[in-house]
Design brief:
With 176 residues, this protein is mainly alpha-helical. It has eight helices and three strands. The protein has a three-stranded antiparallel sheet, with helices on one face. It starts with a strand and ends with a helix.
């Protein structure tokens, strides 16, 4: 059984016949508690396992915290160029980072991350969603609508963007 939420992740795996239970409790929602649990069980059973490596999102977050968003994004570009198979370079890492920044109201930093992500992954609907949310939080409803429209253009089935767009248009209709 596993679970996660803002700030934690957990995994409990039982092997009743072998009288083994593996419990992983992490104070990070970035940790993959399931992977850690599987590897710990593999160690107990003498099976092959992988030692954990720092995930790209954690590495970038630490660089960003110590040296700023601009340096973290430059590090992403450098790693993507010099070590393209060392990490998962899908758009999800940067979308998560952008929304983490958005959550703590670092809107300019979140915007920079979403814009950079779109340079790397032009079809990242979630980056357009992020830019829409940043624009909305900054009071720029027209830009928020434009970004949600772009998101839907990229991914017509994106319910989050459709709901955001409907909400913004309804709010706009109510404004005198």
């Amino acid at each position: 059984h596993s679970g996660s939420d803002n700030g934690f992740s957990t995994n409990i795996t039982r092997f009743p016949d072998d009288r083994l239970t593996v419990v992983v409790l992490s104070n990070s929602d970035r940790a993959n508690a399931g992977r850690v649990g599987s590897d710990l069980a593999a160690i107990a059973f003498g099976a092959p396992y992988k030692m954990p490596i720092e995930r790209l999102g954690d590495l970038l977050w630490n660089v960003m915290r110590e040296r700023g968003v601009k340096v973290a994004l430059a590090r992403h570009a450098e790693l993507k160029r010099t070590a393209p198979t060392a990490y998962d370079f899908g758009d999800e890492t940067l979308v998560t980072m952008g929304y983490d920044l958005f959550e703590v109201r670092r809107l300019a930093d979140a915007k920079a991350v979403f814009e950079y992500n779109l340079q790397q992954y032009p079809k990242s609907a979630y980056s357009y969603d992020g830019l829409a949310d940043v624009a909305d939080a900054a009071g720029d409803k027209a830009r928020a609508i434009a970004m949600f429209e772009k998101s839907i253009e990229v991914d017509p089935k994106n319910r989050y963007a459709a709901e955001g767009l409907a909400r913004l248009r309804t709010e706009g209709a109510k404004t005198p």
